[in-house]
């Protein structure tokens, strides 16, 4: 059974391990299972799936079943229907052949529920049995506590545990400040003075102009016009929307790519994550329209929102429109009332009509609606057509 503090560390650690440039969140999953961490982009309730934007920037589709378990800090996430767009999540499950993950456990939390992340830089002082002292750049002397899940990183791989730290080393620490446990380190990147690992991490977006599989290299012309050659290796992760890119042999000239890499001491650019796909594979983005404010009128199959600026927007609804509220009281169009505060995520149909895709509503001041302003375009694009009723 996970304690509340352990849940906080699980979620926070996974969301901050990108600090050193590698998506380590997949490293601790049980045998035959994988772990992904990131932000929920959309939730498809009829399809029992949701999409996660991972630490490396890839989109992973997750399938849930009746055996999937749900965890959250305050116990508010107990079933699939409790998941909301923009929640931070860790998914543990088994990867299917098509790249989708069958989830066995889903950890979820809203950004407000996560503890504040501390990023500290300084010089290592004393090293104890389960902590060390960090003299920060602003003159503070802080005790940094180490737990089992603390990760250690260094340029040369020599720092893998607390006892490898030495006084005088420069350390970059990602941590949370807990009332019961003090400052707890999630990631400690340390080394001798003279180099900052973050200075060597970079990201490039552009077009692949050359691939040499025999040398494990490929070249990208960045959006800024720079030609950059990357070296790949066993630790390089390859990703694509359709799962067709799994290694350097799948890369082709003309593909669009985003590469996360690190500049090595010998000057080579080591690719850590490669996201690639053909230009025609890019999905068409729907015309998303969001509005928040007070419901001022309700029609037979429409509602009108008055925003804080006084602007009014009318949305039609159909059988595919989803309804959400914090206490579960709003489950259908019939539950809406004039005067409620609402957030509507919809799309412009191009004929002057705005169709509501998701409506979050609640009474004031007893409750606030769910946050829906960041609903992914995937939700709007992938929603199946439903026959309209008058």
What does this protein look like?
By secondary structure, the protein is mostly beta strands. The protein has 4 domains: about 5-115, OB fold (Dihydrolipoamide Acetyltransferase, E2P), CATH 2.40.50; about 115-195, OB fold (Dihydrolipoamide Acetyltransferase, E2P) (Beta Barrel); about 200-280, Copper binding periplasmic protein CusF (OB fold (Dihydrolipoamide Acetyltransferase, E2P), Beta Barrel); about 290-380, OB fold (Dihydrolipoamide Acetyltransferase, E2P) (Beta Barrel), CATH 2.40.50. The protein is about 5% helix and about 45% strand. It has helices at about 5-15, 375-380; strands spanning about 35-45, 50-55, 60-65, 70, 90-95, 100-110, 115-125, 130-135, 140-145, 150-155, 170-180, 180-190, 200-210, 215-220, 225-230, 235-240, 255-265, 270-275, 290-300, 300-305, 310-315, 320-325, 340-350, 355-360. The strands form 4 sheets. It has a 6-stranded mixed sheet. Strand 11 (about 170-180) and strand 12 form a beta hairpin. It is globular and about 70 Å long.
């Amino acid at each position: 059974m996970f304690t509340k503090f352990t849940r906080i560390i699980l979620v926070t650690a996974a969301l901050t391990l990108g600090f050193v440039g590698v998506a380590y969140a997949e490293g601790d999953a049980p045998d035959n299972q994988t772990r992904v961490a990131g932000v929920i982009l959309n939730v498809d309730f009829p399809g029992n799936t949701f999409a996660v934007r991972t630490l490396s920037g890839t989109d992973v589709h997750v399938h849930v079943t009746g055996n999937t378990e749900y965890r959250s800090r305050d116990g508010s996430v107990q079933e699939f229907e409790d998941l909301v767009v923009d929640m931070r999540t860790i998914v543990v499950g088994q990867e299917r052949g098509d790249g989708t993950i069958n989830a066995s456990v889903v950890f979820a939390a809203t950004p407000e529920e996560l503890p504040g992340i501390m990023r500290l830089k300084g010089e290592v002082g004393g090293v104890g049995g389960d902590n060390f002292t960090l003299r920060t750049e602003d003159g503070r002397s802080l005790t940094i506590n180490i737990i089992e899940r603390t990760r250690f990183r260094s340029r040369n791989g020599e720092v893998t545990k607390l006892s490898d730290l030495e006084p005088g080393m420069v350390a970059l620490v990602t941590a949370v400040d807990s009332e019961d446990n003090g400052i707890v380190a999630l990631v400690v990147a340390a080394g001798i003075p003279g180099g900052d690992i973050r200075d060597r991490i970079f990201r490039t977006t552009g077009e692949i102009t050359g691939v040499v599989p025999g040398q494990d290299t490929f070249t990208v012309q960045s959006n800024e016009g720079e030609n950059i050659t990357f070296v790949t290796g066993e630790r390089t992760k390859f990703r694509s929307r359709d799962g067709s890119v799994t290694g350097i042999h799948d890369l082709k000239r003309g593909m669009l790519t985003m590469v996360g890499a690190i500049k090595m001491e010998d000057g080579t650019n080591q690719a850590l994550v490669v996201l690639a796909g053909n230009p025609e594979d890019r999905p068409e983005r729907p015309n998303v329209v969001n509005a928040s404010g007070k419901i001022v009128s309700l029609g037979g199959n429409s509602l009108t929102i008055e925003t804080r600026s006084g602007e009014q927007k009318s949305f039609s609804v159909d059988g595919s429109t989803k309804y959400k509220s914090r206490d579960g009281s709003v489950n259908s169009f019939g539950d809406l009332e004039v005067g409620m505060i609402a957030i509507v995520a919809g799309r412009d149909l191009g004929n002057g009509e705005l169709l509501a895709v998701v409506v979050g509503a609640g009474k004031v001041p007893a409750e606030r609606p769910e946050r829906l302003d960041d609903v992914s375009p995937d939700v709007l694009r992938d929603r199946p057509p439903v026959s309209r009723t008058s």
